[in-house]
Amino acid sequence: MDGEYARAARNRIASRRCVDRRTRKRGVSEEPLVAKVAGSVGALDGGQWDALAGSDNPFMSYDFLTIMEESGSVGPGTGWQSAPIVIESGDGELLAAMPSYLKGNSRGEFVFDNAWADAYQRAGGQYYPKVQIAAPHTPATGPRLLYSDEKYAVALLRAAEQLCAGNGFSSAHATFIEPDQLPLFEHAGWMLRSDIQFHWYNRDYQSFDGFLAALASRKRKAVRKERAAAQDGVDIVHLSGAQITEAHWDAFWEFYQDTGARKWGQPYLTREAFTLFGERMGDRVLLILALEEGEPIAGALNFVGGTALYGRYWGCSREKRFLHFELCYYQAIDAAIERGLERVEAGAQGGHKLTRGYEPCKTWSAHWIADPGFRDAVSDFLEREREGIDVDQMYLGERTPFKKDGSGKP
């Protein structure tokens, strides 16, 4: 799928005309718009891509997506073949786009559909390849439909459906969609799926102590105890931009490899990706390191957005009690307060985040299934699953560490 099959898929949708048309000025004939699959994000104009993506979400930026491609973190052998769907005007202007990938497996997505794949294949179908609309290896919310005008949103989704139908792909999936875009997927007839992450919300805290004041006394004491134990004997530094050297990346790469090997069998990102993050996105990267006698022993890598801090990767060379919580959660809170950010997204799963001030928050994905019978089965499953997610969120929401008299939360 990585080479010849991907090229064939692109050729089958290239030059198809969108149903929607654009009229530039009164009295001028309507110009047809062209929907196509590009060979890569890097093959497109970076300035035009970023004009559509905006500056708030680092994972939709041209830099991040091309780093994934150029570093080999997506591409041959990874199960991710870049196939961005774009809409252009007749003169080649980029009007809308979405980062999409041909997937030969379900690795690196964090919205689990392995049971769907197994069921479909047991019934005689072929689940892979499928189309994935996402930031690769990144369970962070953000826009998935990038456009100059909302009227192009449905055309993007129809193009994804055409890509599937024209090539015999089973399905298309958009993951970690920002809530504002959910109605666009729902209007297009895509099925919605919810799950739970744990996010920290900044309620105008002026300091970490201000945040602690919102917690119940017992929880507040527990956090202080954890921080004291984690910080004992280590120095913690925050590094961005030119402050991050290749030696820092070498150390963090060792941490990341250890964590990746334990969680996924092998790391998703290549070593080159981290160098490129520093070179091209340094001002949007926050690397937090714990040093013992000047040597890094643990680290957490974050990306800085316009309104959120996104915790992405963590690792260590030796275990130290509570150091994971300190670097990934408490230091992230410190950084968000200092920058005036609205929230911290600390990644997928992790109920242990709850007692540390991270609250249960719904995340969303949208799914289009080609086979009508399979689509009905998935729809029934999603309806029952959503009921369970609602119950889980209510249960977890009652167990946050905030004061229960209402003074901790508005």
Automatic annotation (TrEMBL):
Q: Cite the entry's keywords alphabetically.
A: Transferase
Pfam families tied to this protein: FemAB_like
Entries under SUPFAM superfamilies matching the protein: Acyl-CoA N-acyltransferases (Nat)
Instruction: Kindly list the GO molecular function terms attached to this UniProt entry.
Output: transferase activity
Q: Which PANTHER family match?
A: ACYL-COA
Q: What is this protein called?
A: GNAT family N-acetyltransferase
